[in-house]
Amino acid sequence: MQLTGKVRLGIKTKKLVKELVEGEIAVIAHRDIDQLAAESLIEKKVKAIINLNPSISGKYPNLGPRRLLEAGIPMIDNVEKDLFEKLNNGDLVQIIDNKIIKDKKIIAAGEVLNQQRLEIKLEQTKENLEEELIKFVDNTLDYAKKEKELILGIDIPNIDTDLENKDVLIVVRGKDYRQDLEAVISYIRETNPILIGVDGGADALVEYGFEPDIIIGDMDSISDKILSCGAEIIVHAYPDGRAPGMKRVENLGLKAKLFPAPGTSEDIAMLLAYEKGAELIVAVGTHTTMIDFLEKGRPGMASTFLVRLKVGSRLVDAKGVNKLYQSQIKPKYVAEVLIASLIPIIAIISVSSPIHQLIKLILIKLRINIGF
């Protein structure tokens, strides 16, 4: 491997992708790159990735690195931790094999993550998966005891948007959120539900031509432009009332309501819809599996488990619905439509004298031109 490019540094990948320019080399410190982060880096068309942490540690089968390699993006792992101190945004560096070179000097080295090495690491995760599952279940049950107030009752903030007896669509920017959102576009257009964007889920709604009615979350992954779109803003706060996201909202000159609660922002979005009388709650892009939560850095899914118990039959999870049925237009159907459309045209021609005369004139002209 040998390439040259300008670097862009970022400890948190989801913040870095907002600043990346096509063709730059992303310098990150992301242990176990998840699929959502991988897709974001692919969209930015980065030239290469230098990771100060292992992109796949072997803890669980995270598939982000595989997506990056499939997209043809070279990766160097486990680079020296002081690389951030040796580089600035915009520096020109050269990568030769596993070495990073600046001003003709080797400043760091790491491990090239190729397809063969990746498959070996993924195979190793199978040995750890059972142990991780046991830990995950134990943590889920432990936290469920602490967060049971989500079931027994929690203070829900008063909101301006009326959800009573209405359909509510909650969009989370989780794995495969685009495919799942595309699968329910017809539902959105026909039903016109209340749209709730959970952090970056609001950006996803706007990306597909919809305006969110409510934005809820800790405000760490939504863009300033979408945050200022006019939607009602609800900031997810810690149970003790601390809300780091509120400062960002206030800095933009916006107003928001606080929702102190344990769990994830998508959990409280479902609770809000349920407690405010939504008739149906449709969730897109949510996190539901152990891998989903491990990728978010959470050791369990207690709040999600409890919330889904509470909202019960009102919830329809659209995750994976895009795989349920994929419409394909077969050539024979196209031919049948064309034939059917020609029938009325042929019928009109057969009974129309002016058209008969026009056809005769065209035939005469053709004969003259070709010499018959």
UniProtKB/TrEMBL annotation:
InterPro entries membership: Put_SteA-like, SteA-like_C, TPK_catalytic, TPK_catalytic_sf
GO biological process: thiamine diphosphate biosynthetic process
Keyword set includes Kinase: yes
Keywords in alphabetical order: ATP-binding, Coiled coil, Kinase, Membrane, Nucleotide-binding, Transferase, Transmembrane, Transmembrane helix
Pfam family, one: TPK_catalytic
Coiled-coil ranges (or none): 112-139
Membrane spanning residue stretches: 333-355
One Gene Ontology term of the molecular function aspect: kinase activity
Record-annotated Thiamin pyrophosphokinase catalytic domain positions: 190-228
Domain spans labelled SteA-like C-terminal: 319-367
Protein name: Putative membrane-anchored protein
Native source organism of the sequence: Orenia marismortui
